[in-house]
Specification:
Keywords: Glycosidase, Hydrolase, Signal. This protein is 28% helix and 24% strand. With 559 residues, the chain is of the alpha/beta class.
Length: 559
């Protein structure tokens, strides 16, 4: 594990020439030289990865959910984690299912008067406001008694596979009365202030709905603008300094999210506000979603598509930058993932099998380290990117839902975030001929040679990854890292994620894939899921041998 920053030597005092060289296998492998310029900081390494989300708000209260929240809080400290969930306003009896939760916060009496019940909401929000946690508050979905089309309200619910229509029913319609909607939001904000304090609630992000251009919203664009105006008015009537934003549209190519985004920003700038009658609407942050895609190739291998996710980010950054009034606002990728269906298990949909393997970890490293830079190219500031991946309650072992844990055992992707959390200090420049440019990936994804990437910090750390869209076992890489500026180190360490390191899925398969593992097997899975640190042997010139396995992430440190 890394030493605290204050106990590390300054990076400029490190190796004048420190080289990390992969062991060259029998069939001589090309060597890539990476030069780390320790005396050339290039800016902050913003922890945009400390954002997490999930469909089922009630997962927050399950043992698996509380266990993972504890893990994530510990990783992020002292910075907070930010958590975005669906279904905080949905009506129901508290049933938890795939893609479904409810709090029953709003009902109406026989005379049509609002009745607020915050019992379940308080339990969820209490967890999401514990130490080191900030809620990214989503007002959704529409309570039954406030829906313009309340029946049928609840879609088919299941714990083992998604229904045919996941977003059917009254929960996804506009309100029958926009003033009652506004009053509900104001009551919720006031209740939050009473429970958590004004200063705390002012720090939260408040947003209405999810993907309003998609089947999640059964209204028109104009009806969403009305929904937003009344939502913002409700929040601001209680807390004028509270931050409101949106619209959380998804991929431009799916439901014309780009058209919706432009229209939304124009509405906030110059449209007639349905709540106030004035021109424009409050906008304190902007949010959108960005997803990749997956499929099985002709040989039955998982084929990811980093191109699609980065292209979406690029598209929305251009749109935001075209509005001078808004280009300096903080931007959040409200869902930022390799593809679009968190609740679709790989056991039923094999193209999502990347979730169980180190391919998810390698994709995450390759994607996260580019998002901030890509937005910055357009003069837009990315504050956070929400991984719509959490955990699921009462599910089979390793069934391939998009998650960080399975029955509280860490999956390889969680270990990538454990490595992200260890990065400290500013970034320094790295010359790397085998790291694909973002423009190359937006054009062709990662279909030819693998993306062998690196990010280095002023704290003596280099995060390396070896990612390829196609899950193969013949894409190992030999790299040569050269540090310039300073004196030679005494030793170096490495933490690895690949098929045989920090990977409980490999161990589970070796066990015969038990669905009722014994206590000893569960202990072995936990042990196999942990990151370990190895000492790297230094040569006389300060070099060390290191191999990047296919679909791997490695953190090299000089203490």
């Amino acid at each position: 594990m890394p030493l605290p920053l204050c106990s590390r030597p300054h990076w400029a005092a490190l190796a004048a020439l420190f080289t990390v060289v992969a062991a060259v296998p029998a069939a001589a492998q090309p060597v890539t030289t990476l030069t780390v310029h320790t005396d050339e900081p290039i800016g902050e390494l913003r922890p945009i990865w400390n954002y997490f989300g999930y469909d089922e708000a009630l997962t927050t209260l399950t043992p698996e959910g509380q266990h993972l929240l504890g893990e994530l809080r510990a990783l992020a400290a002292p910075a907070p984690i930010h958590v975005r969930v669906h279904h905080l306003l949905t009506s129901g009896d508290g049933t938890l299912a795939l893609k479904w939760s409810s709090t029953n916060a709003y009902t109406e009496d026989a005379a049509g008067n609002p009745v607020y019940d915050w019992t379940i909401m308080d339990q969820i929000m209490d967890e999401l406001t514990r130490y080191n946690t900030e809620p990214f508050v989503q007002a959704g979905f529409m309570p039954r008694d406030l829906s313009s089309q309340p029946e049928p309200y609840t879609p088919e619910l299941t714990q083992r596979g998604l229904p045919k229509d996941m977003v059917s029913g009254g929960a996804f319609y506009p309100p029958k009365d926009y003033q009652k909607w506004q009053d509900l939001i104001a009551a919720w904000v006031q209740h939050s202030v009473d429970r958590y304090g004004r200063e705390r609630v002012e720090s939260w992000l408040w947003e209405p709905w999810n993907e309003p251009e998609s089947p999640y919203f059964k209204g028109t664009m104009e009806e969403f603008f009305m929904l937003y105006d009344h939502f913002a008015a409700g929040v601001k009537s209680v807390l004028p300094q509270a931050r409101v934003g949106g619209p959380h549209v998804t991929d431009p190519g799916w439901k014309n999210g780009d058209v919706f985004m432009e229209a939304f920003l124009e509405h906030c700038r110059s449209g007639l506000n349905a709540a106030t009658g004035e021109i424009g609407a409050p906008l304190d942050f902007i949010a959108f979603h960005a997803k990749g895609t997956t499929r099985l190739d002709e040989q039955g291998r998982v084929e990811m598509n980093l191109r699609n996710q980065l292209k979406t980010i690029d598209t929305y950054a251009r749109i935001i930058a075209s509005f001078p009034e808004y280009k300096d606002l903080p931007v959040y990728i409200g869902e930022s993932d390799p593809e679009g269906c968190a609740g679709c298990p790989a056991t039923l949909d094999p193209e999502r099998d990347y979730r169980r393997t180190s391919q998810f970890a390698a994709y995450s490293a390759a994607a996260f380290m580019r998002k901030q830079d890509l937005m910055a190219e357009h003069g837009v500031r990315l504050e956070g990117a929400v991984s719509w991946a959490f955990t699921f309650h009462d599910q089979p072992w390793f069934n391939g839902l998009r998650a960080f844990t399975t029955n509280e055992v860490a999956l390889p992707v969680l270990n990538a975030f454990r490595l992200f959390a260890q990065l400290e200090g500013e970034r320094v420049r790295v010359d790397n001929p085998d790291m694909l440019s973002t423009a190359q990936i937006i054009a062709d994804s990662v279909r030819g040679r693998p993306d062998v990437g690196a990010v280095a910090t002023t704290s003596g750390q280099v995060l390396l990854w070896n990612f390829h869209d196609i899950d193969t076992d013949d894409q190992s890489a030999t790299v040569r890292l050269v540090w310039t500026g300073g004196t030679a180190p005494l030793y170096a360490t490495a933490q690895r994620i690949d098929a045989t390191h920090a990977n409980a899925y490999t161990t589970w398969r070796e066990m015969g894939e038990p669905q009722e593992p014994t206590p000893a097997q569960i202990a072995a899975l936990h042990a196999a899921s942990q990151l370990t640190s190895e000492n790297l042997r230094l040569a006389a010139d300060g070099s060390v041998t290191l191999t990047l396995a296919p679909q791997s992430v490695v953190l090299v440190e000089v203490p």
